[in-house]
Design brief:
Blueprint (H helix, E strand, L loop, with lengths): L3 H9 L5 H12 L2 H8 L3 H8 L7 H12 L3 E4 L3 E4 H10 L8 H12 L9
Antiparallel strand pairs: 1-2
Helix pairs in contact: 1-2, 2-3, 3-4, 5-6
């Protein structure tokens, strides 16, 4: 049976993005479930990306991958320098206003006024 790297190479061919190959290698060195947990995403999302069948935003998945595994950071108008995956997680929460605590309200406002905010992300 093929491992994650072979699965990704077969699905993507020569056009495989470097981050998808990196994701496949992370899955091969650990497990798809543990990588999904580290990314705060589902194992089925990881599987769909590796199989080149993910229908959501690959840009969003790439940014989460790079934030978790490559320590990519972005400048947040409210929090300063943060990992790109943390930015994506706050953007997801900022799609709808929820007044559960002051930090959530502050980040809702910050995200919605930020040029990086892309609305409903997966």
């Amino acid at each position: 049976m093929n491992g994650p790297v072979e699965k990704a190479r077969m699905a993507w061919g020569d056009a495989i993005p470097d981050w998808v190959l990196g994701l496949a290698r992370e899955c091969a060195s650990s497990s798809q479930n543990s990588i999904a947990k580290r990314m705060n995403r589902s194992a089925s999302l990881i599987s769909a990306v590796l199989a080149n069948k993910y229908k959501g935003s690959l840009e969003a998945v790439e940014e989460v991958y790079r934030g978790v595994f490559e320590r990519l950071t972005v400048e947040c108008p409210s929090l300063g320098t943060i990992p790109s995956n943390t930015c994506r997680d706050w953007q997801l929460k900022a799609v709808t206003f929820v007044n559960v605590n002051s930090e959530r309200v502050r980040m809702y406002r910050a995200c919605n006024s930020c040029p990086r905010f892309k609305g409903a992300l997966k």
